[in-house]
Amino acid sequence: MTGGRTSDGSAGDADYAAIGGGYADFRRPDPRIAQAIARALGEARTVVNVGAGAGSYEAAAPEVTPVEPSASMRAQRPSHLAPAIDAVAEELPFADGSFDAAMTTFSVHQWSDVTAGLREMRRVARGPVAVLTCDPARVTDFWLYAYAPGVLDTEARRYPSVATIAAALGGEVSVEPVPIPADCTDGFNEAYYARPERLLDPAARQACSAWSFVDTATADAYTGRLRRDLADGTWDARYGALREQPSYEGSLVLVRAVPA
């Protein structure tokens, strides 16, 4: 691995000992997103889930081996899921071709060396590699940028480009935009496109790691502006049509690569 770990073993730039406590409550897998992941994995039976966290989306495959470096995230895994192996994406402790497929969800932006991590996924998977991530070129298109530019600038900077992911994986690569449902149960920022009030909840924001990169005073200023515009109708005048929109096509994408 390139770089170090945080106090609880987190291998990226966010300390999940500090911010990961509510992930299991706010980052619950959405069944419609899970279906997209299952389609990408195809007939794969054995799947390694890299950066597995609390186990979101592991129901997409029959037999999952989770890998998660953060102790606080491993501790949140429900008892019916397999315990996660303490390892990092850049050094997966498996032989070549150990699994039918590999998956990772909302994780690549945490890795210290994304190219090395993706190449490791390709090395240990005989078949498809599925990467659920956000396209940094589209992150700041979201309405939240008008209120919290520092949060989304941070998010866009952290996510690797789709081209970088494709080049690291090689083979035949497809990129599928993933529509976000209005009642999405996985609480990343864009999941609240039609429910802006949810972002006034500090616990909901804490479950979106990009918020941890702005200080408390800045976050309070951002949310204060949003609270004011919700109260006086400004937000609804600008973006209210989104409340009636059943889904939103934002930055969420599913990158799938199979060997050439």
TrEMBL record:
Please list the residue ranges annotated as the Methyltransferase type domain: 49-126
GO annotation terms (biological process): methylation
GO-annotated molecular function: methyltransferase activity
The record's listing under InterPro entries reads: Methyltransf_11 (IPR013216), SAM-dependent_MTases_sf (IPR029063)
Q: Tell me if Transferase is a UniProt keyword of this record.
A: yes
Record keywords: Methyltransferase included? yes
Spans traversing the lipid bilayer: none
Say which domain of life the source belongs to.
Bacteria
What UniProt keywords are attached to this protein's entry?
A: Methyltransferase, Transferase
Q: One Pfam match, by short name?
A: Methyltransf_11
Stated name of the protein: Methyltransferase domain-containing protein
Its source organism is: Streptantibioticus parmotrematis
